[in-house]
Hints:
Rossmann fold; two-stranded parallel sheet; 16 helices; elongated
Amino acid sequence: MKKVILTGDRPTGRLHLGHYVGSLRNRVIIQNEGDYDRMFVFIADVQALTDNAANPEKVRQNVLEVALDYLSVGLDPEKVTIFIQSQVPQLHEMTQFFSNLVTVARLQRNPTVKTEIKMRGFGEEGEQQVFGSGVPVGFFTYPISQAADIAAFKSTIVPVGEDQEPMIEQTREIVRSFNSTYGEVLVEPQILLPGNLVCRRLPGTDGKAKMSKSLGNCIYLSDTPEELKKKVMSMFTDPGHLKVEDPGKVEGNTVFTYMDAFATDEDLARFWPEYKTLEEVKEHYRRGGLGDVKCKKFLLAVLEDRLAPIRDRRHAYEKDIPRVYEILREGSAAAREVAAQTLREMKDAMKINYFDDQDLILEQSRKYQ
């Protein structure tokens, strides 16, 4: 079986560090290792419209923002097919076919959907009313659309964050249902989570929730050095660590969570040679005598080291926006070819290939002779 990688993001804003450690960094590693037959990365504008239907210009503008973020982190269009979801119509046809294989009750049990609906304030309060009349049908059924995105390319591996596990499991169920009903056409994907557990759900700078654009607690990949410094220096730490000499808590301390996600022993050697390992830093903080400002300055140096080349690549692409759109156009055309082949195979299995099935035409001709 071919090894096919597929993953993507909704264009609802610029991408941030949560996206980076949760999936983007992994994608670049996979790309550079080259241990795959094909890799697709897409911008899910159709899914973004499910809760932004009244604001299409926001989605339109953010398609470019996400594309710039993809290219700036190091995704190479020579190695990876980057495309826009809406420009591959076969995906929407597959979504319709898949909708016949999923019950309303199953969608209601999807924890990711339930969480997202509550976050966006659709419908009324309460567990029984979370799927009330205020939930758009497209938003409610987006796990089906996501299954089509994955199945269309016969994806075998989907690198995503931890919050997407229920979605991938539902995709697997839909693929199994299609194959058992019509024949073995589609491939069940496997999820690929970040190896570092901290990276699976990076908290926001406020330490109260995962990094989220809507909560305003993000560090964006495109942030300037000044913006980065302001956000890092205002990060949530241990509220009980009032004085430098006070013992401090590392657990739940956002600064240390980010150190775990980004910092290495090599970073310590470069930026804080007083310590050899992060564990030494943590132990000093726990027993007291290490201030939050020193910790934040080290984290700032590490993050600036990671973000500076990303920022530079973005600036280079910003100077040639037509080229960015050309990359998206070429990628979308390539994606359509692959999805069209899968759709043909699906229609053959579903016996709705009326004009391509010459045996059917001959059989019906004889029937009425």
